[in-house]
Request: fold
Amino acid sequence: MLKQFGSITVFTGPMFSGKSKALMARLETKQRARKKVLIVKPLLDDRFKATNSIVSKRKKTDRFEPDNSLPAYPIRDEEELRQLIAAKEPDVLGIDEAQFFSLWFGLTLFQLRKADGLEIYVAGLDLDAWQKPFGSMPDIMAYSDSVQKFTANCFQCGQDARFTQKVGGSSEQIQVGAEKLYEARCENCWILPA
Reply:
């Protein structure tokens, strides 16, 4: 009998493009199919004061609000991820905000896909606010079996947006936040952050 390998599917694009929503929809489908689903996220993602869940949001009038959530384990490193997998023995692994993980993450997911046969779904930003590849995402996309790139609507003109614009906060690459710090922008409306 041939060994069963898993798969890695990536949902990527700018902020406000529906990556987390797509991830959650896929994971909920797997749960309905009675698969054991484990969801993880980076420890530093504390948007919406939701440290133990992943959250999708939708725009209500003039601001974004949480729309749906799923329980998730905040993790720091590879050791915590592997311990969780050993303890929970999932069929499916879901990861949100993967760009915040270090370079160890892509290879680790590939190893889990091959060795454990895990079906893995990942959501994360492909580019930072400076239009540069972000964190572990280039490696994850290289190891993936499927990549779905999403666009948002440009906050300025309404056209398809494939970039994230930083509009507040610091000049640091990693600053966790939502619409008070970031906007989705098309190529014409995007400008280099200060």
